Amino acid sequence: MSAAAVELTGTGTLTRLMLRRERVRVAVWVAAIPLLVLLTAASVKGLYPTRHDLDVAARGSQGNAAAIAFNGPALALDTVGGEVAFQTGTIGLVVVALLSIFMIGRQTRGEEEAGRTELVRALPTGRHATAAAALLVVTGMNAAVAAVVTLGLLALGLPATGSIVFGVSFFDLGLVFASFTTVAAQISENTRVVHGSTGAVLGAAFVVRALGDIGDGTASWFSPIGWVQKTRPYAGERWWPLLVAVACTAASLALASALAARRDLGAGLVPPRPSPSQAAPGLGRPLGLALRLQRGSLIGWSCAVFLAGVAYGWVADDVKEFIGDNDTMRKVIASIGGADITDAYLTRSLLTVALVGPVTPSSPPCAHAARRPPCAPSRSWPPPSPACAGRQVTWRSPSSAASWCSQPRVWAPASPTPWSATTPARSPACSVPRSFTPRLSGSSPASPSLCSDSHRAP
Questions:
Q1: Residue 98: phi, psi to the nearest 5?
Q2: In whole angstroms, what separates CA 362 from the centre of its chain?
Q3: Helix (H, G, I), strand (E, B), or coil: what is residue 20?
Q4: 436 secondary structure, DSSP code
């Protein structure tokens, strides 16, 4: 058996396991993205039933920098296919990229952080089997999304070539960001950092693409989103830009494989920064802890909502020209209320932005408590050293919010040394989990410094 085959041992079994565990999440992603695209495409056909309506909409969008920045290049807007690609292309591509980011991060670094990958690697599985299985699952999801989108657009009566190119562009961009996330999972040992860093790459790609589309289009070649939009669906299709995305995916996966061979299981290439000696006073309260853990999501979503508001406001001055004589769109916007069509448009836009708030992703600060028995010893939470034998050790969290870990435990080693051959050696003092500080009762005056180490999370 070749070395490459050994590294991938067990990939098929892990792929089936991931599909079994994530069947609901996979089904939701694969159904929601095509539904978003196809419903928008159907509404575009209803809003612009005649060539005159398409011409009016094209004149309103052709020179509008905000519309181009958020929707993509304005190509063939006087056709139904071009209008569909303009209205749904960019948002669909961004959601497909998010699918790849969240699924790869969850199945690679998330599994390592939870300790399940270590259990799997104790069985006859290859070093790259987990990542390969995650990539196979996400590739299948992206292929399913692309196929459903393509078939749906064909069912709406759009040209076959443009529909196929449009669907394949979704598939290619999903693979690009799946490979980016695989690289990030080798660098950081924290799942939130993996998601945040890859999300930042997606945001940068969106901004670079927007700047290029507003200008002469040159800058768009430096963005993965720009690569797939250069295929020009429904506007004189070009296949060769997809090869750029394929080459980038292959290079990123090769880099991820090389990085994985140079790190330890559960660790990242970039070590975590040193922790402060004392936590901020605000972290002792539930609200302060929640804000600290969710600050990245809050900042990111706040910026997204702000940019959406800028886009809606930018278009507001031209909304009358954009709608023109389209009675259907006038009725849709005016149904929200308001005497002026611009005021009704802004009201509808504010309602759309307000709907973003409730779907902001978050995770509870102590979600890991449900996955692990309180203070249960394990390899990731090593027990005290023999010097603590017979003494009562109480593990307490620095935050009163995590009071679930305050039960006393009496350490009584079952053998002269509590360390197995596979566990790295520790210092004679008590080894404690990061983010927890031991408080002892019944300490001996002769050894006041034993079992008193303090490690805090950053």
A1: -65, -40
A2: 12
A3: helix
A4: B
